[in-house]
Amino acid sequence: MAAAAYTPGLKIVAKTLVEKDRRLPMKGVVHVKKGDRVTAETVVASTDLPGNVYPVNLANILGCEPKEIKLFLKKAEGDKLNKDEIIAETPGFFGFFKTQVKSPISGTVESLSDVTGQAILREPPIPVEVHAYVDGIIDNIYEEEGVKVDTIATFIQGIFGIGPEVIGQLVMIAKSPSDVLDKDNLTIEHKNKIVVGGSLVTAAALKRAVELGVKGVVVGGYDAHDLKEFLGYDLGVAITGTEDKGITLVVTEGFGKINMAQKTFDLLKNCAGKKASINGATQIRAGVIRPEVVIPIEGGKLSDSDKSANMGMTIGSLVRIIRQPHFGEVAKVVNLPEQPTKIPTEARVRVVEIETLSKAERMILPRANVEIIED
Question: What is the third-level CATH fold of 11-17+154-296?
Fold first, then answer.
């Protein structure tokens, strides 16, 4: 039996089952039933987050004892109020020299205390909606929490990304995996679209994409210096995906000008014109999260060969190097030594012998330094 080893995989598959849990941040209402067919835009669950709280020291403003505030109240607990509406007011002298306490917000009176002399006001609740994110079928309901959506789709994981979930039509701009996506390649026709480049998207192109209202960019590489300039800060090792820059970026290969893998490029090209869902969220460390492109296949079904899972790394497997100095390079596994091997750090670890596709260069790396590219 050939040697095999499991390593976290970077999935690039033409047809697979994609399962998405869609949960609320707190308990709420689920709006769909198991078996329902939904679109990416369908609101599957919703809730209201409590509004912000504002304390107002009534006794201090009115110049009275805390226990006396009830003599001057114009509002009761639970009452709604508008900004600048009077909460409490002293009678003054012969109707003059009144002291008024006006609400700093629109909201409700949550509590009134004659012990502290304070009123606690709360802004209106903040509605939160969870969308299906992908076209598919509701496979499971999490009572008052959310749902699981299943879809048969083309599924591509990237190596790095920024920006939130977005949905749009996939448009191929690059003619080949080596093409550079520059600002002159983008027009108003790309508004609300997800565009695909080749080896690199320039800083000027990304800025132009934001100006035009492009929803997302999928590309082989991106310059790390340009990324820092675009974001305005250094990402470090933080999780991405919450950036509010008006666009989502999915990088499939790595930093720098790197040709998009031919398989990835061909899959995207075959899906041109279709509806895609992409997410730039990335976390490389514990609890790995990968940026992704999900392109549902209408009426798609999995054959037995589609269902056969890639259970591990074997001779001939394609892997991607995820550590410097060869970060992002794709290679083929040529040997899987069974015994731990001493590496330059003096540690003894299990290693893999690989051959890079770009330069046919052989090297031995710790297995933790590569990840499988699943077929």
Answer: Glucose Oxidase; domain 1 (3.50.30)
